[in-house]
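Async update (no meeting this week)

Hi team, since we skipped the sync, here's where things stand on the single-chain job. The sequence we agreed to prioritize is pasted below, unchanged from the tracker. I ran it this morning and attached the output directly underneath so nobody has to dig for it. Comments welcome in thread, and please keep replies under the output.
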Amino acid sequence: MNLPNRITLSRIFMIPVMMVFLLAELPFLPEPIVWHGVELGWGQLIACIIFVVASCTDGIDGYIARSRNLVTNLGKLMDPLADKLLVSAAFISLVQMDKLAAWMAIVIISREFAVTGLRQIALLDGAVMAAGSGGKIKTVLQIAAIVVLLLNNLPFEIWSFPADTILIWAAVIVTVYTGVDYFVRNRHLLKQSNA
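Output:
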């Protein structure tokens, strides 16, 4: 359990804390903030900060692992799983809060776990599937969409359109595209695993 793996584990532990602030009615929190006519609860704001911090740990643990030669099989397994759990928890919470259509969350979460499964098959064969530029764009779009939805779209607009609408649709489209691309580029792994 080296430093990068501990950082990854901390990301997993932040998930239930984020969900408590997001979904539970906590009596000790002050009254909601009203900004530009939009109400934002302190629980949502704190949950959003936790989500952003947890998202940042993804890059930090990977950088430390590579730069200090601390890459482990445990890290290779836990890191993508922690990412998927964090994003899934956020999207499922947003569905419960009526801020996101359930089908969008299902499409995104299904792709995430399908690609993670493909990566695990690759690991069993001794291959490592590095994240491509499309995957990184997908991650940035998903994080941006979650943050804007958590902040009640304060006061974000893109070309006079609500930022949450544009970002979530962009995230869904890029998520589907990169998922299909992963499977097309790595279909040989599925053939090898069947053999």
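Quick observations from my side:
The mean pLDDT is 87.
The radius of gyration is 18 Å.
Reply here if anything looks off.
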